[in-house]
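Morning. Coffee machine broken again, so started the prediction first thing and wrote up yesterday's gels while waiting. Chain of 150 residues, entered below exactly as on the submission form.
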Amino acid sequence: MLHSGHCHCGRLTASFETQKTPRELGVRACQCEFCRRHGAVNVSDPAGKVVINAAEADIARYRFALRTADFLICKHCGVYIAAVIGEGDQIFSTLNVAGLRMNEFLEIEEQPMRYGAEDENARVDRRRLKWTPTRFIDAALSASFFGPHQ
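Came back before lunch.
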């Protein structure tokens, strides 16, 4: 199944390919302050694929707490679309289906998640195992995830 969505103004788009139904995947609602303020509802599938089409100039990146992932926010409309991490030669993400308006996921009961007890290694390991392999259309944006963490 292929699911697609975009931020409010349409500059950032994402497609999510998975063999599972939205109900089989479920959706997660992280309980951290950032995610609650954004109304984030996230989904990922380690066996799936994500493609994000966005220009580096249209993205604001935000890092907080352990600073292990970039939260991608549209510079124009302010919508948070994904959290992304680069590991080795791979990129992984979790998509905010609420921000992307992927409606087929929005009727599923959210599973509240609390990650505050994880240390940096546990958080990165969980993301590498559970998040979706990701590709960016913009080569410069893709390359930026393989440089040193700032």
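The domain at 2-143 is CATH 2.170.150.70 (Metal Binding Protein, Guanine Nucleotide Exchange Factor; Chain A). Going to sketch it on the whiteboard this afternoon.
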